């Protein structure tokens, strides 16, 4: 009986010993949640923007890097709160972004092979979707008269030796960053 009590006492003593950990650093988090925003394409967030690319021939995408079907679209900001000076679009990381090319993957099962979609700024410079906020090369616009328009293009890109025929579908989530 004494042995059982001794073992139980020792076990209870071990449970009360807290492990020692050394701190290797500190991460300080700061941020803000603000009501300062704009309406996007006439709607309150979240907004949905649909872009329909035209049908193109596989001959237009017969080699890696060839593009076709360039189609404009816009993110229109209106009713912006006072104090907003500029806006830039950040395209959020997600499973549709090919981190090797910075393009959007074709998510249609059995769809067009070797085809992706790239996004371009109004001046036709490519937006690097695989990059973090602030380094995607997404255009910044000034807010004037409580609004602004961010003009973009979407286009097919051959991602292989030649594109195969089929449907193309993709999407990307975006945030408008105000300053």
Could you please describe the fold and organization of this structure?
With 179 residues, this protein is mainly beta. The protein has one domain (34-53, 60-178): Sandwich (Immunoglobulin-like). The protein has one helix at 2-15, and strands at residues 39-40, 67-78, 86-91, 104-105, 115-121, 140-142, 148-158, 174-178. The strands form 2 sheets. It has a 5-stranded antiparallel β-sheet with strand order 1-2-7-5-4, with no helix packed on it. It has a 3-stranded antiparallel β-sheet with strand order 6-3-8, with no helix packed on it. The longest helix has 14 residues, at 2-15. The radius of gyration is 26 Å and the shape is globular. The mean pLDDT is 87.
Oligomer: single chain
Q: Give the CATH H-level superfamily.
A: Fimbrial-type adhesion domain
> Structural class, please?
mainly beta
State the order of secondary-structure elements, H for helix, E for strand. Answer: HEEEEEEEE
- Second CATH tier, the architecture: Sandwich
Estimated radius of gyration: 26 Å
Q: Report the total helices.
A: 1
- Based on CA inertia axes, which overall geometry fits? globular
CATH level 3 topology:
Immunoglobulin-like
**How many strands appear in the DSSP assignment?**
8
Summarize the structure.
The protein has 179 residues and is mainly beta.
Please render the helix and strand layout as text.
Layout: H1 2-15, E1 39-40, E2 67-78, E3 86-91, E4 104-105, E5 115-121, E6 140-142, E7 148-158, E8 174-178
Antiparallel strand pairs: 1-2, 2-7, 3-6, 3-8, 4-5, 5-7
């Amino acid at each position: 009986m004494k042995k059982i009590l001794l073992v139980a006492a020792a076990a209870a003593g071990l449970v009360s010993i807290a492990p020692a950990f050394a701190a290797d650093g500190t991460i300080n988090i700061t941020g803000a949640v603000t009501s300062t925003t704009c309406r996007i394409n006439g709607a309150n967030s979240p907004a949905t923007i649909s872009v329909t690319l035209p049908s193109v021939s596989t001959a237009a995408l017969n080699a890696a890097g060839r593009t076709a079907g360039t189609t404009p679209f816009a993110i229109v900001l209106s009713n912006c709160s006072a104090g907003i000076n500029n806006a830039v679009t950040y395209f959020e990381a997600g499973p549709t972004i090919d981190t090797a090319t910075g393009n959007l993957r074709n998510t249609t099962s059995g769809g067009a092979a070797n085809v992706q979609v790239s996004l371009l700024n109004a001046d036709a410079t490519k937006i690097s979707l695989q990059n973090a906020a602030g380094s995607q090369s997404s255009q910044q616009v000034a807010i004037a008269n409580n609004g602004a328009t961010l003009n973009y293009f979407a286009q097919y890109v051959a991602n292989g030796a030649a594109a195969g025929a089929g449907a193309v579908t993709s999407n990307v989530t975006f945030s408008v960053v105000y300053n």
